[in-house]
Amino acid sequence: SELSSGINAEYGDAEHIAAVLEDCVDQLAVLGSIITVPEGTTSSGSLNEIAKLLNSQKQLEGRYEALMASERPGNELNHVRQSMRSSAQALVRNVKLNPLGTENLIKLQQDREYLQLLVSECLEEVSQEGSFEGLIRATVEEREKKNKLQETILREEDARKNVRSLQRQLLELKRSKEVEMQSRNEMIAHLKDQLQETRAKTTMERKYIEKECQVQKVMKNKKCSMTETELQAELENLQIQMEEETKVNKETEMWVKKHHDQLQEKVEYWMDKYEKEVDQKSEELSTLKGTKANILLKLQELTLKYQEYDEVVMEDRAQKERAKKAAEKAQLEIKSATKIQAWWKGVMVRRGLGPYAKKKGKKGKREREENRWI
After folding, report:
1. What residues contact 100, with CB distance under 8 A and at least 6 apart?
2. CA pair distance 121, 28, nearest whole angstrom
3. Which of 136, 176, 306, 331 is 20 to 30 A distant from 289 in Cα terms?
4. Do residues 62 and 147 lie in contact, with contact meaning Cβ atoms separated by under 8 Å?
């Protein structure tokens, strides 16, 4: 697409390319007139070998491109290059050994005709439109056809391998079936001999079994008659026991019925007693509920009185506590005043003040002391 856009941009390049393509078409036409396909047929072994070499070459090219795209190709890249070189040399040698094969010439002629037609169309497209998108499409189509052809060749080779494998398996199966058939024929002959022996033995056993069955039948009849007699006697005993059980059952039923009537009377008695007691207890419950209501009223009144008395008592206690504290305070004041008076009296006595002063002499001294204290 980039090349076609470049051609559209520069018309001179388109003319040069058209001239080159026209020259190519002329050369292909000359080549077609030179190549002649001889009559006769040749072996297709060379073509198969060439196809294998081409397929191998294509795989090596794909591997080479993958290694080039990777970051670290390593020594494997050199190995792939050598393999591609050896494969190309083998392909060249094969073509040189069979240069004039009929299949090669036919294939060459067909490829030349297709290439001539494709170049002619490309020349016409370049001359008219200035692009060669058709050549690109044809190249992509041919590449897809080539890939499909390679896949078909590979599938055919796989199919041939499978056919050979199946042929070998069929041969082995045929041999095994023949051996198995022979062993089965021998087994059939052996089984026929055993069948004759088994028939003779079966006839003798059948006669013996018939006689034994007759004897066993007679013995079974005798045993059955004896068992029948025993069962008849047992049946009579069971009938007698059943009559006794029936009689006992009737007596038991009468006793149970009588006892049931007695229990029914007791149940009625106890039900009456239960109803009377329930009524009595209901009345007592009503009385108790009324008594409870009165008691609750009294309890509320007493609670109110208790609260009032409690308030009075608390107030009285508070007054007594205040009076006690006042008395203690007064006592403390009196005691403190007494102590102060005693101290002052002692001071006056020691100092000789007041009534404890000396009468003669020391008047001036006493006045000094009074003034000092003042």
Report:
1. 38
2. 14
3. 306
4. no
- Identify whether the C-beta of residue 120 lies closer than 8 Å to the C-beta of residue 65: no
Nearest to 6 by CA among 140, 137, 132: 132
Residue 182 CA to residue 176 CA, distance in Å, equals: 10
pLDDT: is 203 or 365 the higher one? Answer: 203
In degrees, to the nearest 5, what angle opens at C-alpha 267 toward C-alphas 263 and 268? 120
- Among positive and negative, which fits the CA dihedral 64, 69, 73, 78? positive
pLDDT digits (tens, 9 = 90+) for 104-142: 677 777 777 777 787 787 877 777 777 767 777 777 887
Of 186, 167, 185, 164, the residue nearest 175 (C-alpha): 167
Rounded Cα distance between 272 and 5, Å, is: 123
Identity at 329, one-letter amino acid code: K
pTM, two decimals, is 0.28
DSSP readout, 41-87? ---SHHHHHHHHHHHHHHHHHHHHHHHHHSS--TTHHHHHHHHHHHH
pLDDT tens by residue, 64-91: 667 666 656 567 767 766 776 777 667 6
Backbone angles phi and psi of 169, in degrees to 5 = -65, -40
316/213 Cα distance (integer angstroms) = 129
Answer positive or negative: Cα dihedral of 75, 77, 79, 82: negative
131-137 contact pairs (CB < 8 A, 24+):
131/4, 131/7, 131/8, 132/3, 132/4, 132/7, 132/17, 133/1, 133/4, 136/1, 136/4
The Cα 291–Cα 34 span in angstroms is 147
Question: CA-to-CA distance for 144 and 72, rounded, in angstroms?
Answer: 30
How far is Cα 3 from Cα 235, in angstroms, rounded to an integer? 121
Q: Which helix (H) or strand (E) holds 319?
A: helix 133-351
Asked if residues 40 and 102 have their Cβ atoms less than 8 Å apart, the reply is yes
Angle between helices 45-69 and 76-97 (to 10 degrees): 160
Residue 88 · residue 105 · CB < 8 Å: no
